[in-house]
Design goal:
The protein is an all-alpha fold and 62 residues long. The protein has one domain: Orthogonal Bundle (Arc Repressor Mutant, subunit A). 47% of the residues lie in helices and 0% in strands. It contains four helices and no strands. It is flat and about 40 Å long.
Length: 62
């Protein structure tokens, strides 16, 4: 689960996750994808680039 908002500035970043993930897995450059999506602040870019989906790993232990 990607965070809905940036932890630093509060901008909404969750809406970009699916397109970002799909395009980067298809082989596009992550910087070009973020520029195309309009994610300009470095704190918001960090939220998308550094996200690791851990829900499937943690779910069995609940």
């Amino acid at each position: 689960m990607v965070p809905v908002r940036c932890f630093t500035c509060g901008n909404v970043v969750g809406e970009y996750w699916e397109e970002y993930e799909g395009r980067t897995e298809a082989g596009e450059n992550s910087a070009a994808v973020l520029d195309d999506l309009g994610v300009n602040r470095h704190c918001c870019r960090r939220m998308l680039v550094s996200h690791k989906d851990l829900v499937d790993i943690v779910a069995p232990y609940q």
